[in-house]
Automatic annotation (TrEMBL):
Belongs to the DODA-type extradiol aromatic ring-opening dioxygenase family. It comes from Papaver nudicaule (Iceland poppy). One of its GO terms (molecular function) is ferrous iron binding. The keyword Metal-binding applies. It holds the Pfam family LigB. Keywords: Dioxygenase, Metal-binding, Oxidoreductase, Zinc. Residues 3-262 form the Extradiol ring-cleavage dioxygenase class III enzyme subunit B domain. This is Extradiol ring-cleavage dioxygenase class III enzyme subunit B domain-containing protein. CDD domains: 45_DOPA_Dioxygenase. Its cofactor is Zn(2+).
């Protein structure tokens, strides 16, 4: 299994037909990733915890969490449901791999469902909702290296039929977003270009230390939660992984929907 980073952007991605990322995600099974996974592990920007945590739901299906505001244009989202099965065995396996790799505190939450960082992209990628889904949290008080090492620990899952997806955003500074008709500001485009060039060149250490290496890093990611899922997905693919930009578009001037595939070279 290759690993992936998906920029999920606005929750309206699930309903807004004008968003360029929609047809890309809807073509996922036919064009991007044709092999059906046994289960899916999503590292979501929208679950922040002190220690790595997994949702080990033991009931028949995950509940759908509507963790966004109810602006009028978002009201139809509250009518959507993504009843994917829980993946308690995968949750236990994630715990085992992280613990064996030196992560001392790995928690399991048996009541939490899946937030919009998980179900918004999956409702387009796998609308059948028939694949067990497990969610892994991020630790915003720690750094990129921590999350990259989490990914390294989870690498064996690729050979066990598990699709690993980091769900966040290549750029994410919501208070300064503009209109779709506005030009992309240089602070966003420069970071986005740096990210692409660094990934395609295999500069993993630069990605780990993006706050020191990337232009405008703090402006682009004033908080790190939307960037750390990329580190986990990249680490899970291995140090020799080859990155591929598989989708790129902009919305609201400064919100990049860049998506990447990380392919392990054996």
């Amino acid at each position: 299994m290759d690993t992936y980073f998906i920029s999920h952007g606005s929750p309206t991605l699930a309903i807004d037909e004008t968003m360029p990322a929609r047809p890309f995600l809807k073509s996922w099974q036919e064009i991007v990733h044709k092999e059906k996974p046994k289960s899916i592990l999503v590292i979501s920007a929208h679950w922040e915890t002190e220690y790595p945590s997994v949702n080990g739901v033991c009931i028949n299906q995950n509940s759908t969490i509507y963790d966004f505001n109810s602006h009028p244009e978002r009201l139809p989202l509250f009518e959507l449901n993504y009843p994917a099965p829980g993946a308690p065995k995968l949750a236990k396996r994630v715990q085992e791999l992280l613990t064996d790799s030196g992560f001392k505190h790995v928690k399991e939450d048996t009541t939490r469902g899946i937030d919009h960082g998980v179900w918004i992209p999956l409702i387009l990628m796998y609308p059948e909702a028939d694949i067990p889904v497990c969610q892994l949290s991020v630790q915003t008080e720690l750094d990129g290296t921590h999350h990259y090492n989490m990914g390294k620990a989870l690498a064996p899952l690729r050979d066990e039929g598990v699709l690993i997806i980091g769900s966040g955003s290549a750029t994410h500074n919501l208070p300064v977003l503009g209109k779709d008709s506005d030009s992309v500001p240089s602070w966003a485009s420069d970071f986005d270009t740096w990210l692409k060039e660094s990934l395609l060149a295999g500069r993993h250490d630069d990605i780990k230390h993006y706050m020191e290496k990337a232009p405008n890093a703090l402006m682009v990611h004033p908080e790190p939660e939307h960037f750390y899922p990329l580190h986990v997905a990249l680490g899970a693919a291995g140090e020799d992984a080859k990155a591929e930009l598989i989708h790129h578009s902009w919305r609201e001037a400064a919100l990049s929907y860049a998506c990447y595939r990380f392919k392990t070279i054996t």
